[in-house]
Amino acid sequence: MSEVLTALVHASEKSANIARACKQEEALFQLLVQEKKSIEKNKRFVCDFKTLADVLIQEVIKHDLGKKFPGLEDHIFGEESNEFTNSLGEKIKVEVCATEEGTAELLSKVLNGNMTAAELLASIVHCGVSIEDPALEKVAAEIPQDTMALWVDPIDSTFQYIKGYANEKTKDGVYSKGLQCVTILIGVYDRSSGLPIMGVINQPFVTRDPHSLRWSGRYFWGLSYNDINICSLQNDVNAASPAAEDLCEEGSRQKEEMQDGDNDLSAVISTNESDAIKSALSAVRLYYAAGAGYKSLCAVQGFVSVYLLSEDTTFKWDCCAPHAILKSMGGGMVDFRECLKRKSKGNVDELPELIYNTPVNGATGVDRWANKGGLVAYRCRKHLDIIMNLFSDVNP
Ligand code: 2IP
Ligand code: CA
After folding, report:
1. How far apart are CA 351 and CA 353, in angstroms?
2. What is the Cα–Cα distance from 316 to 323, expressed in whole angstroms?
3. Ligand 1 atom 1 nearest Cα
4. Does position 147 have pLDDT exceeding 80, yes or no?
């Protein structure tokens, strides 16, 4: 069993419980949809509830992984900082305390004395999760702890999380918007090479019970380390793990059999994508969807051949987890513009895979960790090449 991967799945499930509670529990939901303006009038106000939910999830992941693997918490990075200062100059650090009561007490300070909400959240934070996943238990990989670091996106697609509807319909399995586009992303990379090693994508809102109106979710994991490539979408982990390339071949063979293979390629993109990109991709089936994590998940699930983004609007925390899963399936995530550059120079052999340990030169703040050249997430190298050939007229 890979204890780290199992711990990531547990942490992602607890995070999903928090994310669901904030939508389903009335006392929390009211806070989530509350207008920022009215709460900001209060001088003790430290952050909006959406930010608190984000930060709390990130802290829970840090806390739970750090407890299991002491020292690892210092190598867990994400978008959020856990320190807030209100307009009275009071500083508050959101963190998981040793006891449930302690966490509730701390959260009530951030929540301006709302003990009901604080206790509800604290009870989920301190409640264990149990998982039955025989495939996960069979994953065997010994990875030294001091080689690993993590990128976490506690809630990806925050807009859909707050405003997204429950009853959106899919187009061939792809949701363009709605709660299904929300994901929790936990990815591990190698500190020295920067390459992704393993990751979990948790989708907290997948189906809603029509009677209780409670949501249930699901998770996907993948691990790619030395010659071990394994993911939750593989049918039988008892079988000798096929090489990543074989999985890719197998995937494309099945697709060819079903849909005349390479003639039926598809891509998912952001609605904000430029017209030049949309028109280059008009040769393939095109889908639009919210959320960087969700679009990557569409590639993982095989709903689309690629997720392509030409802009610099994603960050390392959006990509590390899906990248690891795609890698375990024989695919990956590359820098879109660098790919175009290399192609224009005739250098097509080595792909510019995204790496996770190197900030953007000269950038400051969050921009240090932006994926500057955009990205393409793919499951199969051959399909990536065909899609990239559509961009011969686009300037790198
Ligand atoms: C966002 C989120 C957006 C996405 C953007 C990410 O992360 O995934 O949906 O834009 O790139 O940074 P788009 O949906 O246009 O692809 P977050 O919600 O965590 O800010
Ligand atoms: Ca994000």
Report:
1. 6
2. 10
3. 157
4. yes
